[in-house]
Amino acid sequence: MNDNKDYYKILGIPRGSSQEEIRSKFRRLALEYHPDRNKDPGAQDKFKEINEAYQVLSDPNKRARYDQYGKAGVGANGGSGQPF
Known about the structure:
This protein has about 80 residues and is mostly helical. It is built from 4 helices and no strands. The C terminus is likely disordered.
């Protein structure tokens, strides 16, 4: 997955979206791109990207770190926010 992608753009929502808007858009996109329903070659990768975006934006703590630091704020350390 491309580390420069914006999770808000992936889900097609504005930054100020509510949790309900995030959940609703995720469900719609997940149904559209789920590998069991969509046999297009890129559907599985798109589904993974959508899921990754939702995992961050649906969690208020991860979302706050993402909004402040970008993907680095929720990256390799599992998004724990703990210093080295």
